[in-house]
Specification:
- This protein is of the alpha+beta class.
- A hairpin with a 3-residue loop joins β3 and β4.
- The radius of gyration is 15 Å and the shape is globular.
- It starts with 5 loop residues before the first helix and ends with a strand.
- Its EC number is 3.2.2.-.
Length: 199
């Protein structure tokens, strides 16, 4: 199975937030299980001019992966209860990342349901903390490269046409006016209200 390489992720963060929609994220757990989900919602974060970005005030031990190679995972623990998964963008040394907010489940549904304690497929991955729990993404994946065999994005075209919309990001208190959330308008698997405008 071909994977997207580093050249795909070395793009402006806002562009990548849109290009990732429809792409398939894969997590091979190493014990024979595989999780696959189609990305349907993202948010962009940039160090320059974005107070909601973890790297707004510069590099720290926590946000160091954001300055690394594009196509690296930046996973952090939020409010002591959720892991959130971001994909590092921009050239190395420039802090930017795309938060994966929601996916459509494709493979590993029974394990996802067990991990979440839910039966409704539509609710399994419709939130950034929900999808990491369902797909077993933890701090152990922080700094992992998407060019390996454990976590990666499939290199294939999404043949199903979809309308992409933008809106304000969800759950932040700074730089709230930026329309840096992207989502597939007709997806039932997005995390928040489908309020926004077409891109």
């Amino acid at each position: 199975m071909e994977k997207l390489g580093e050249d795909f992720f070395t793009k402006p963060t806002l562009m990548l937030a849109e290009l990732l929609l429809g792409k398939i994220f894969v997590h091979n757990t190493g014990d024979g299980r595989c999780y696959r989900g189609k990305i349907v919602e993202t948010e962009a974060y940039l160090a320059e001019g974005d107070e909601a970005c973890h790297a707004y005030r510069g590099m720290t031990k926590r946000n160091r992966p954001m300055y690394g190679s594009p196509g690296t995972l930046y996973v952090y623990f939020s409010y002591g209860c959720h892991h959130l998964m971001n994909i590092v963008t921009e050239p190395a040394g420039v802090a930017g990342a795309v938060l994966i907010r929601a996916m459509e489940p494709i493979e590993g549904l029974e394990d996802m349901k067990r991990n979440r304690g839910l039966e409704r497929t539509v609710d399994l991955l419709n939130g950034p903390g929900k999808l990491t729990r369902a797909m077993e993404i933890t701090l152990s994946h922080n700094g992992a490269s998407l060019s390996g065999d454990t976590v990666f994005i499939e290199k294939r075209e999404d043949t199903a046409p979809h309308k992409i919309c933008s809106s304000k990001r969800i759950g932040i208190t700074k730089s709230t006016g930026l329309l840096w959330r992207r989502y597939v308008s007709d997806s039932f698997f997005v995390s928040g209200k489908k309020a926004g405008k077409a891109c």
